[in-house]
Design brief:
The complex is a heterodimer of chains A (about 280) and B (about 240). In chain A, strands 7-8-9-3-10-11 form a 6-stranded mixed β-sheet, with helices on both faces. In chain A, strands 1, 2, 4, 5 and 6 form a 5-stranded antiparallel β-sheet that branches. Chain A has a single domain (about 35-50, about 80-275), classed as P-loop containing nucleotide triphosphate hydrolases (Rossmann fold, 3-Layer(aba) Sandwich). Chain A has helices at about 45-55, 80-85, 100, 110-115, 125-135, 145, 155-170, 185-205, 215-220, 245-255; strands at about 5-15, 20-30, 35-40, 60-65, 65-70, 75, 90-95, 175-180, 205-210, 225-230, 230-235. Helix content of chain A is about 35%, strand content about 25%. By secondary structure, chain A is α/β, with parallel strands linked by helices. Chain A is globular, with a radius of gyration of 19 Å. Chain B is α/β, with parallel strands linked by helices. Chain B has a single domain (about 1-240), classed as Rossmann fold (3-Layer(aba) Sandwich). Chain B is about 35% helix and about 25% strand. Chain B contains 9 helices and 10 strands. Chain B has helices at about 40-50, 75-80, 95-105, 110-120, 140-150, 170-185, 195-205, 220-225, 230-240, and strands at about 1-15, 15-25, 30-35, 55-60, 65, 80, 155-160, 190-195, 205-210, 215-220. In chain B, the strands form 2 sheets. Chain B has a 6-stranded mixed β-sheet, sandwiched between helices. A 4-stranded antiparallel β-sheet of chain B has the order 2-1-4-5, with helices on one face. In chain B, β7, α6 and β8 (about 190-195) form a beta-alpha-beta unit. In chain B, α5 packs parallel to α6. The chains are: A alpha/beta (about 280), B alpha/beta (about 240). At the A-B interface, α8, α9 and α10 of A face α6, α7 and α9 of B.
Chain lengths: ~280, ~240
């Protein structure tokens, strides 16, 4: 089976007064209908990678790639107009914080409807039915009531589930989730990720989960890319994270306290070693 | 002597009561954690102790002294607070030197230059940083400054409100090590609010699990490490923690 997404030598750079700074320095990866995790710390370029797939990086940012192919479509050659048919419909993205990503002056139902009818002409009644079914799929129990609420009337966890509903209702083939749960409580985090996980496996979609949390990514993904200052330093199967060999990955793993902690001091990364930020 | 005693503490914001009948006794030198979901009232308890949430009934005593509802200078010298977000808790137009000197000026303490220098060394910041502004520092460095500021008055008790949850994993490790070392060196008492159970396991002796403004369970950290918390809700929290 040919891969869903193929990225070769992706570079993202921004101008500064001392010249262009590359934040993603030529990374390559392939994605099938599987769950890929991208982990790294602030400034590692993980979010920029996710955004450049959807061509969401605005000028003066510059994205170049030898190849960026989604299901046979060359993304680098798509016009802004053509991209609009792909965004949402075929590739969609869940952002970090529902508080800032939902439109505060539209009801939840209207926003989800917008995501659907932008890409598909449907009779009103069917739109409503799809919305209610989708809200139920993200485990919102009284979808009729919730569809009439405004974003400020729902909790963070529910807001994020609404985002997911909105992103999945056009039935995309690839979902990019950029820190989908870091604004949420630990107990809600697991719920939201379980929902994403279920829907992704049921529909046979591809998933790119971007996060700074190694243990979370290893729990929900099949494969993991570890990024540090714009490069992929390690690629491994999620189950083999414990055997990771790159010193940066090992450092990250060791720096996390564990629930049955016995160490008196946590090992700290020696930043000079990677000459990063 | 106990460092912090809370008796039948109810705290309200306007008409909404957010903390209901909390009783706690934290010994001097202890490191105690409050854990729970957002909205469970854990930060509100810290704010009440610091004097930032004045609408409470019951009793709050710090090192044996019952506190009033106002902000008190004597309490400020014994209890200081470190906030979650180092990007928001430092004045953007004051240099690190000004930030650290301010508590000394307010309390009429002299020898400021020396004390600032010493404190910077204690939190592991080079003295180059002394005359910089917060925006010239990274998140981890700023949190070090916030901790330094809290320690300027040589308090006995530190209230830590999610001190590492805005930081990267590797920076979190540095700050946790720093907090652990400072506690050992200066014999501090910590009251830490967090939702991160592994952090509790690393830094604390006891914990209280909170839900809907009430304490569900108080346990030794040993029980947490063995996964033997008694209450269903505590176990739920534990199960939701990855790793």
């Amino acid at each position: 089976m040919s891969p869903l997404l193929k990225v070769e030598n992706l570079r993202v750079s921004f101008p500064t007064h001392t010249g262009r700074v590359e934040v993603v320095k030529g990374i390559s990866f392939e994605l099938g209908r599987e769950r890929l995790g991208i982990v790294g710390e602030s400034g590692s370029g993980k979010s920029m990678t996710g955004r450049s797939i959807l061509k969401l990086i605005r000028k003066p940012g510059l994205v170049t790639a030898d190849r960026m192919e989604f299901d046979g479509v060359d993304l680098t050659r798509q016009s802004e107009r053509q991209m609009r048919d792909i965004r949402g419909a075929r590739i969609s993205m869940v952002m970090q914080d529902p508080k800032f990503s939902l439109n505060p002056v539209m009801t939840v139902g209207e926003q989800i409807a917008e995501a659907l009818v932008t890409h598909e002409k449907l009779p009103r009644r069917e739109v409503n039915e799809r919305i209610y079914a989708m809200l139920e799929a993200v485990r919102i129990h009284d979808p009729k009531r919730v569809a009439g609420l405004y974003p400020h009337e729902v909790s963070g966890g529910m807001g994020q589930r609404i985002m997911i509903a909105m992103m999945l209702i056009p039935e995309p083939e690839l979902l990019i989730a950029d820190e989908p749960t870091s604004a949420l409580d630990v107990s809600v985090q697991a719920q939201v990720l379980d929902i994403i996980d279920n829907l992704v496996t049921q529909k046979g979609m591809g998933l790119i989960l971007i996060s700074h949390d190694l243990s979370l990514v290893s729990r929900y993904c099949d494969r993991i890319l570890v990024m540090n200052s714009g490069t992929v330093v390690e690629e491994c199967a999620a189950g083999q994270l414990e055997q990771a060999s790159h010193p940066y990955t090992r450092g990250l793993l060791a720096a996390m306290p564990v629930i049955d902690e016995t160490r008196d001091e946590l090992p700290v990364l020696d930043r000079t070693q990677w000459a990063g930020t | 002597m106990s460092a912090i005693t809370l008796q039948d503490l109810d705290i309200s914001y306007g008409d909404t009561k957010v903390v209901h009948g909390v009783n706690l006794d934290i010994a001097e030198g202890e490191s105690f954690a409050l854990v729970g979901e957002s909205g469970s009232g854990k930060s509100t308890i810290l704010r009440a102790i610091a004097g930032l949430a004045p609408d409470w009934t019951g009793k709050i005593a710090v090192l044996g002294q019952a506190r009033t509802h106002r902000i008190e200078r004597s309490v400020a010298r014994q209890v200081q607070m470190v906030f979650q977000d180092p990007y928001g808790s430092l004045h953007p137009r004051k240099t690190i030197d000004e930030v650290l000197s301010e508590p000394l000026v307010i309390n009429g303490i002299g020898d400021r230059g020396d004390r600032v220098e010493k404190m910077l060394t204690a939190v592991g910041l080079d003295h180059r940083f002394r005359f910089r502004f917060p925006h010239q520092l990274s998140g981890g460095q700023r949190q070090r400054v916030a901790i330094a500021r809290a320690l300027m008055l040589e308090p006995k008790v530190l209230l830590l409100d999610e001190p590492t949850s805005a930081l990267d994993v590797s920076v979190q490790a540095e700050i946790l090590n720093l907090l652990k070392r400072l506690r050992k060196e200066q014999g501090l008492t910590y009251l830490l609010v967090t939702h991160n159970l592994p952090v509790v396991s690393f830094l604390c002796d006891r914990l209280a699990v909170m839900r809907h403004g009430r304490i569900v369970e108080v346990a030794d950290v040993g029980l947490l490490k063995q996964g033997q918390l008694r209450e269903d809700y505590s176990r739920e929290l534990l199960a939701a923690t990855p790793g």
